[in-house]
Amino acid sequence: MAGDDERYNSAGRLRRSAYDTEMERLQEQLVLLQYWIQSQGLKVLVVFEGRGSAGKGGVIKRITERTSPRTVRIAALPRPTDRERTQWYFQRYVEHLPAGGEMVLLDRSWYNRSNVEWVMGFCTEEEHQEFLRSCPEFERMLVRSGIVVLKYWFSVSAEEQRRRFEARNDEPLKRWKLSDMDLAERELYVRYSMAKDTTFQYTDIKQAPWYVVPSDDKRAARLNCISHLLSQFAYEDVAPPRVELPEVRDIPYVRPPLHEQTFVPQVF
User: Fold this and answer.
1) What whole-number distance in Å separates Cα of residue 73 and Cα of residue 222?
2) CA–CA distance from 115 to each of 69, 128, 169, 194, 256 (Å)?
3) Which of 226, 215, 183, 210 is nearest to 114 (CA)?
4) Domain ranges of the chain
5) Please, what is the average pLDDT of the chain?
6) Tell me, what DSSP letter sits at residue 210?
7) Coil, strand, or helix at residue 104?
8) 106 membership: H or E segment, kind and range
9) SS3 of 90, please?
10) Do the Cβ atoms of 38 and 233 come closer than 8 Å?
11) What is 16-239's CATH topology?
12) What is the pTM of this model?
């Protein structure tokens, strides 16, 4: 795809200048999509899955960078509590589903069960099999209820994952991103591939198909994912018109002396 295209460097990766220009355009379109979702009362659920360091967090950050958190919100659930472990597996996710006029971005999701939990032995084989049976039905229920379900799987090669993990390890300010789970995932790369293939076999359904995002080139992956997301909606420009700012009302009031307030030191 790169060839002699000036947008790409000698390694075939998208240049920063081309990326920045297109990202700015796409983020403007995301704001327009946001207004459309609000005006139409749409319920949109976007699932982001994939290996550690594959780039899920990066694309989520770019989607939400210029949109309103009241309309486009992130749901990144922590480990389940002891109480949640006794609930129906999907129960704790249900409360985070979108209402009318909302788009929810699931930073990892119920697919933890068929990937991390299964590979690491955090669930039983029976629980894994039950998930594979019930997940497609659960998602069909969501779609029938009027929720738009989009599922993105970010795919990164073993070589690129190693490079990204090593980059985190080399930089002290980023080392917090390299967790014990990341190290285990690196060691069990093949097992995670098996888990992903099994997940797709059962849950790549017509009503909510998986969309794979090759992400060795992070910049291209972000643009491709956001472009595809936008293409799923026949949205129109319903952005509100420019408003007239009111003049400040002249209300009799004497403010207390400024010296009675405590200000932060003016270092700059």
Assistant:
1) 18
2) 29, 9, 24, 9, 60
3) 210
4) 16-239
5) 95
6) E
7) strand
8) strand 102-107
9) coil
10) no
11) Rossmann fold (3.40.50)
12) 0.92
Q: Which helix (H) or strand (E) holds 192?
A: helix 189-203
User: Which is higher by pLDDT, 1 or 36?
Assistant: 36
Tokens describing residue 134: 């019930």
DSSP annotation string for 128-186 = HHHHHHHHHHHHHHHHHTTEEEEEEEEE--HHHHHHHHHHHHH-GGGGGG--HHHHHHH
The candidate with the shortest Cα–Cα distance to 213, out of 106, 3, 66, 58, is 58
Predicted pLDDT of residue 23: 98
Q: From residue 247, how far is each of 39, 240, 244, 254 by CA, in Å?
A: 29, 21, 9, 19
Q: What is the percentage of the chain residues whose pLDDT exceeds 70?
A: 99
Half-sphere exposure of 249 toward its Cβ, with a 13 Å CA cutoff? 3
Q: What average pLDDT does the segment 198-216 reach? A: 98
Torsion of CA 199, 149, 112, 84, to 10 degrees: -130
